[in-house]
């Protein structure tokens, strides 16, 4: 059941949804000519990984993690992300490129051995070993985009004053549930991992050996970057959600909150065992594959869709229970594992049209809603057929069940383009 908040904001302004926005991108350095994960060390000139806020590494030494500072708008976060990407380009070795896909390149046995034996962050090693035991090596070298989002008082203040929500925690939890429910829209439009280069060895993907490639997004499916299916949480309210996470941690099913791989994570003000007694600071959205057609890995269009989904959750909130949350996982999974050229199921086409109607109502209330028009046109163009989705654009580049040649050429192109711009 959908019920609209009685009063849409009279002066909704593009870019004022967030108090702070941060973007994190994970991406691999890859060595040529083999196109295997780079065995060059992370460049120390980028800073000490224990303290450096903008340049980190993740599960492997080749897996760079670029983190923007908190910014007041999506545009400023994207601008800094581009700056960080350029700085990383400056520190690549001559035979290195940035791999532009979420799914890693082919891993020979020697690559896995190197991954297992070369790791230069001892403070992370115990947790890393637990992840290997829980999931194996391949899942955690998949990469993606995380978007951190805190609400501005411009948006939250009037909603709280109207009594539509009892407190800011309720605002955030409504966003968490509703964006999670409609994650399939992001998967449909921006899923960009249609093939895996490691189909036999990857034990996570082996669980779905019934699926024929290409798909929309291996990474976004339950066969990709996901917790084991036995991890089910209680979405009745924020307290029960966080308490159910605590219970999983206490039982040893999760190491800590960072091992929860749901589409939206809560970031609150205190340690996890008392987190549900404190207020939410921001949400972390973990729903985007790397977009190989942009050097930053994500573009304004994708982030505008996320902003519209957040606004939809606030102004057109749905009553979403545990059963609906579990069903949303199945729906997203089905869409993630469709062929990129397949249309959405009929039920999701209907829901897509309803969302677009909401987005247009929000646009009509915005002082500068014309800024959303390109995104709204793109959405309308893709309702009944995937005419410009990323996975569909990747299909012509797939050869012999692989995007290796495309990814290598694209990585070289972005590096050469950047070097030419500097001259």
From TrEMBL:
It comes from Weissella viridescens (Lactobacillus viridescens). It comes from the Bacteria. It holds the Pfam family Glu_cys_ligase. GO terms for biological process: glutathione biosynthetic process. Residues 33-53 are annotated as: Disordered. Its EC number is 6.3.2.2. Belongs to the glutamate--cysteine ligase type 1 family. Pathway: Sulfur metabolism; glutathione biosynthesis; glutathione from L-cysteine and L-glutamate: step 1/2. Residues 20-319 form the Glutamate--cysteine ligase domain. The keyword DNA damage does not apply. One of its GO terms (molecular function) is ATP binding. The gene is gshAB. Residues 40-52 have a biased composition (Basic and acidic residues). It catalyses: L-cysteine + L-glutamate + ATP = gamma-L-glutamyl-L-cysteine + ADP + phosphate + H(+). This is Glutamate--cysteine ligase. The keyword Nucleotide-binding applies.
């Amino acid at each position: 059941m959908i019920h609209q908040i009685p009063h849409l904001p009279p002066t909704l302004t593009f870019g004022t949804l967030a108090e702070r926005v941060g973007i994190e991108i994970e991406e691999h350095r890859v060595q040529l000519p083999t196109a295997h994960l780079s065995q060059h060390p992370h460049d120390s000139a980028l800073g000490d990984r224990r303290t450096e806020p903008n340049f980190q590494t993740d599960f492997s030494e080749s897996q760079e993690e670029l983190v923007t500072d908190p910014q007041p708008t999506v545009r400023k976060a994207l601008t800094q992300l581009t700056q960080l990407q350029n700085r990383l380009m400056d520190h690549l070795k001559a035979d290195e490129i940035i791999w532009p896909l979420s799914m890693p390149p082919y891993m020979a046995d020697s690559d896995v051995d190197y991954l297992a034996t070369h790791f230069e962050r001892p403070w992370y090693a115990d947790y890393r070993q637990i992840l290997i035991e829980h999931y194996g090596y391949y899942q955690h070298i998949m990469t993606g985009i995380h978007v951190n989002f805190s609400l501005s008082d411009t948006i939250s203040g009037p909603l709280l004053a109207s009594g539509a929500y009892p407190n800011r925690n309720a605002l955030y939890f409504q966003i968490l549930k509703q964006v999670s429910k409609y994650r399939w829209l992001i998967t449909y439009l921006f899923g960009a991992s249609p093939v895996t280069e490691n189909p036999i060895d990857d034990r996570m993907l082996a669980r779905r050996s019934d699926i024929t490639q290409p798909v929309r997004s291996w990474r976004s499916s339950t066969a990709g970057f996901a917790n084991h299916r036995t991890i089910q949480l209680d979405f009745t309210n924020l307290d029960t959600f966080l308490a159910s996470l605590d219970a999983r941690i206490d039982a040893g099913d999760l190491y800590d909150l960072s091992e929860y791989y749901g589409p939206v994570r809560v970031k609150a003000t205190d340690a996890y065992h008392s987190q549900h007694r404190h207020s939410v600071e921001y949400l972390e959205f973990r729903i985007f594959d790397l977009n190989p057609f942009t050097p930053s890995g994500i573009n304004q269009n994708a982030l505008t869709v996320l902003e519209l989904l957040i606004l939809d959750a606030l102004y057109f909130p749905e009553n979403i229970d545990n059963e609906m949350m579990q069903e949303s996982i199945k729906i997203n999974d089905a869409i993630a594992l469709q062929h990129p050229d397949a249309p959405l199921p009929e039920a999701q086409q209907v829901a897509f049209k309803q969302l677009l109607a909401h987005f247009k109502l929000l646009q009509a209330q915005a002082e500068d809603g014309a800024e959303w028009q390109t995104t709204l046109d793109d959405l309308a163009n893709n309702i009944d057929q995937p005419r410009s989705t990323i996975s569909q654009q990747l299909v012509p580049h797939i050869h012999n069940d692989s995007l290796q040649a495309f990814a290598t050429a694209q990585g070289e192109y972005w590096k050469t383009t950047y070097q030419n711009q500097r001259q």
